[in-house]
């Protein structure tokens, strides 16, 4: 009985003989490792389900819920504190109701451009997305909108840090 030709036989690409020899040597010396279903215990499976639910169900709902609240907060802070035209040293350093310190490194590319030169930073906040970044650590604020680029951890941190969200939601976000 003749062997069936492999699918890859139809798609031969020119490869140098030395490269082919190196690939053959690596594949012959590498053992095949397969995972068994027993690798995940029940606890890991539960956390996997929780993670999937957070990412695919809770995060989209939070994005829809967070956007209007932050838009209202932006309008409020803009009318009382003029955050769209603020400059150093008269910029808003802490969120007024909770005295939460605002992180201006996370907006306007300030960290990359100015690092530790606070006087040179751009303190203008032009929209609600930039306002939301002030409440996060710099590495968490790498999103462009309240969409898939905004991770679940950032959404939960916003709920925890801003007093405009319902207390029950804030306490649930702390537990997650």
Could you give the topology of this structure?
Blueprint lengths: L16 H13 L12 H40 L12 E2 L4 E2 L8 H5 L13 H6 L18 H10 L5 H9 L1
Antiparallel strand pairs: 1-2
Helix pairs in contact: 2-5, 5-6
Short description:
The chain has 176 residues and is mainly alpha-helical. 47% of the residues lie in helices and 2% in strands.
Explain what this protein looks like in three dimensions.
This protein has a two-stranded antiparallel sheet with strand order 1-2. Helices cover 47% and strands 2% of the residues. The chain is built from six helices and two strands. The protein has 176 residues and is mostly helical. 17% of the residues are buried. The protein has one domain.
Number of domains: 1
H/E series, N to C?
HHEEHHHH
Classification by helices and strands: mainly alpha
- CA(first)-CA(last) distance: 60 Å
Average pLDDT across residues? 88
Helix fraction by DSSP (H/I, runs of at least 4): 40-55%
- Ranges where pLDDT stays below 50 over 5 or more residues in a row are none
Strand content: under 5%
Strand adjacency order, main sheet? 1-2
Rg computed from alpha carbons, rounded to a whole number of angstroms = 25 Å
Per the principal axes of the C-alpha atoms, what is the gross shape? flat
The major pleated sheet works out as: 2 strands, antiparallel
- How many strands? 2
Treating each run of at least 4 consecutive H or I residues as one helix, how many helices? 6
């Amino acid at each position: 009985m003749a062997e069936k030709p492999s699918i890859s036989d139809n798609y031969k690409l020119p490869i140098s003989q030395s490269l082919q020899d190196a690939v053959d040597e690596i594949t012959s010396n590498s053992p095949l490792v397969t995972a068994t279903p027993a690798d995940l215990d029940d606890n890991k499976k539960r956390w996997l389900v929780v993670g999937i639910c957070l990412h695919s169900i809770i995060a989209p709902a939070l994005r829809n819920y967070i956007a209007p609240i932050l838009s209202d907060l932006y309008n409020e802070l803009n009318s009382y504190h003029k955050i769209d035209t603020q400059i150093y040293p008269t910029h808003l350093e802490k969120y007024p109701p909770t005295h939460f310190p605002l992180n201006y490194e996370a907006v306007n590319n300030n960290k990359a451009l100015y690092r530790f030169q606070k006087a040179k930073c751009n303190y203008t906040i032009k929209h609600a997305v930039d306002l939301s970044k002030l409440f996060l650590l710099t590495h968490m604020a790498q999103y462009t909108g309240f969409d898939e680029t905004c991770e679940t951890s950032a959404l939960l941190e916003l709920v925890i840090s801003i007093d405009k969200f319902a207390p029950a939601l804030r306490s649930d976000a702390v537990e997650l």
